[in-house]
Amino acid sequence: MEANMPKRKEPGKSLRIKVISMGNAEVGKSCIIKRYCEKRFVSKYLATIGIDYGVTKVQVRDREIKVNIFDMAGHPFFYEVRNEFYKDTQGVILVYDVGQKDSFDALDAWLAEMKQDLGPHGNMENIVFAVCANKIDCTKHRCVDESEGRLWAESKGFLYFETSAQTGEGINEMFQTFYISIVDLCENGGKRPITNSSASFTKEQADTIRRIRNSKDSWDMLGVKPGASRDEVNKAYRKLAVLLHPDKCVAPGSEDAFKAVVNARTALLKNIK
Ligand code: GTP
Ligand code: MG
């Protein structure tokens, strides 16, 4: 049996699973859990000290699921406390604040922390990850848009949800899909169903969209040197257009990336004789 498979997995029987929350301090992990379990929101920030533990029961199809939730503190100070709680986990709620770019950029470090603590025999492949882009109610401060978050999550085979613990938007949908995916995974012997594991776009497409988002000018966007010839610009453009054309590419953000490439080419050709 796989290391983090729960003990009982016969269809129809009750199942016990372990779920943890992960993400920077103050992104809203505890509030997301509170919103789902207690149907309320607390606006005052009460930092989680170490770990908060709770048990809840949910019904998925014909199974009763007993969920042990370990809500982790995001502050680096609590690393020592967190690190023993990563093992034997079936589901992770990975949260960032859409108004705090740092908290989005930190997601890779959270995965790395978990991987390191699971050790060489730990397997992240049989864990369901639900990424929550939280605090979507704070529209004025939003700096990580949906396609950027979705691209990150989906290129890793993770679930992605836009949530607000304050208004409740996306919270029930997130937990329902999350629990169904965990049960599916358990019933499938710890293997992700094919549809979940293989993103419907390639790594090259995802990397290219990210590169285009972060490019500093039109030359950089097309991946040519400043002062490149018309031919070089057109060649680079054609390559990107084939890769990102909305008819061919379903990666989140591909449409905007494609438009940006079209505009970059137009702008460059205007000034090249
Ligand atoms: P640590 O326990 O320190 O790791 O933080 P946490 O991620 O558990 O954050 P917590 O849930 O305590 O929320 C932090 C602050 O953000 C609190 O003041 C919450 O009221 C606020 N907050 C959480 N979710 C939302 C949300 O969706 N929208 C808004 N506007 N505020 C939120
Ligand atoms: Mg907390």
TrEMBL record:
GO terms for molecular function: GTP binding; GTPase activity. It is found in: Cytoplasmic vesicle, Phagosome membrane; Nucleus. It comes from the Eukaryota. CDD domains: DnaJ, RJL. InterPro entries: DnaJ_domain (IPR001623), J_dom_sf (IPR036869), P-loop_NTPase (IPR027417), Small_GTP-bd (IPR005225), Small_GTPase (IPR001806). GO terms for cellular component: late endosome; lysosome; nucleus; phagocytic vesicle membrane. The keyword Nucleus applies. GO terms for biological process: phagosome-lysosome fusion. PROSITE patterns: DNAJ_2, RAB, RAS. GTPase which can activate the MEK/ERK pathway and induce cell transformation when overexpressed. May act as a nuclear scaffold for MAPK1, probably by association with MAPK1 nuclear export signal leading to enhanced ERK1/ERK2 signaling. This is DnaJ homolog subfamily C member 27. It comes from Lynx canadensis (Canada lynx).
